[in-house]
């Protein structure tokens, strides 16, 4: 079983991170509307109505308490409006990037505004940020729940639609010789390879000619479908409290309920069951975070799962950085497993892990020796390449 996360697309040079999406949204949606403030275009639905309606007052009347802007915000807004009036795209962008905290003054999407202002622990982890906001609403006075939930859920739906459009319009999957080489060396003598694809993109289809690949399951659906986007830890204590509250709006964007709509969750279960003698898991580019805990627990904390390999990132400069990254993944794995003993039994050590996508000469030796040590029943006739394949 090969778990594919966003790091797989990033290893191909594709701009698929939430930060890439944030830059796109800023440069091609927000800036476009700002530069057309004086037009009657119906496209200005991404901007905050208060800003649109009062831009002239902000511009010509210095300070006014009525609009709740402080002096620094007013100076920034007046500077921005000056660049907009001159239709200077570069200056508008520079002004926006000079203080991300003020972007929330311009846009109607409150969740996105908080993300730009870096209000959360992980910069632009949209799904985790949504859950943090959801918990905040749950802990607020009950009489405000319906209105606040309606705004938050509409905000997330708008982001979901914009993200899907960005990936459809801007991302073109491509093949990589380094990735192909890594696959070939990992898949030798494997009887059956199945991909559990957490990405919406189809980059993995560039490798469909590789031998032994049985299936590619888009667990969160592909871009040709309604993508699954939200939070995925239904073991969390707060989720249980939200469910018990009987207010279904708290549950609207939990992946558990989207999995009930999609055939792909059952496909994963069927694939797991098909491996009668158990299965090994290769994790490529997935953070193993709480936003996907439900499905990850099903795959990893399973008696049939025998070994888990976490590849080291070859884009990190030092072994210390790779070790730190591996520790984060191990910590996230520990939150998925009920038993640390089971975790220790299954996870292949950092010392026996190899780099991805660029394999080093040491990696070829490591993977060869590791196969004999960890998989003796499979290694009687394993042949690992000792030199890197050259591609045209």
> How many beta strands in the DSSP annotation?
7
The structural class is alpha/beta
> Strand order within the widest sheet?
3-2-1-4-5
How would you describe the shape?
globular
The sequence of SSEs as H and E is EHHHHHHHHHEEHHHEHEEHHEH
Q: N- to C-terminal separation?
A: 29 Å
Secondary structure tally, helices: 16
- Look at the structure and give the mean pLDDT: 88
Low-confidence stretches: 62-66, 379-392
Largest sheet: 5 strands, parallel
| Radius of gyration (Å) | 24 Å
**Beta-strand content estimate:** 5-15%
Roughly what percent helix? 40-55%
Describe the structure.
It contains 16 helices and seven strands. The protein has 392 residues and is an alpha/beta fold. Among the domains are: 143 residues; 89 residues, no CATH class. The strands form two sheets. Strands 3-2-1-4-5 form a five-stranded parallel beta sheet. Strands 6-7 form a two-stranded parallel ribbon. Helix 3 crosses helix 4, helix 4 runs antiparallel to helix 5 and helix 7 packs antiparallel against helix 8. The longest helix has 26 residues. The radius of gyration is 24 Å and the shape is globular. The protein starts with a strand and ends in an 18-residue tail after the last helix.
Give a brief outline of the structure.
The protein has 392 residues and is an alpha/beta fold. It has helices at 6-10, 18-34, 49-60, 71-85, 89-98, 110-116, 126-138, 145-170, 177-187, 237-244, 255-261, 264-274, 293-300, 319-336, 340-346, 361-374, and strands at residues 2-4, 193-197, 213-218, 279-284, 305-310, 312-313, 355-356. Among the domains are: 2-6 and 175-218 and 278-371; 19-107, no CATH class.
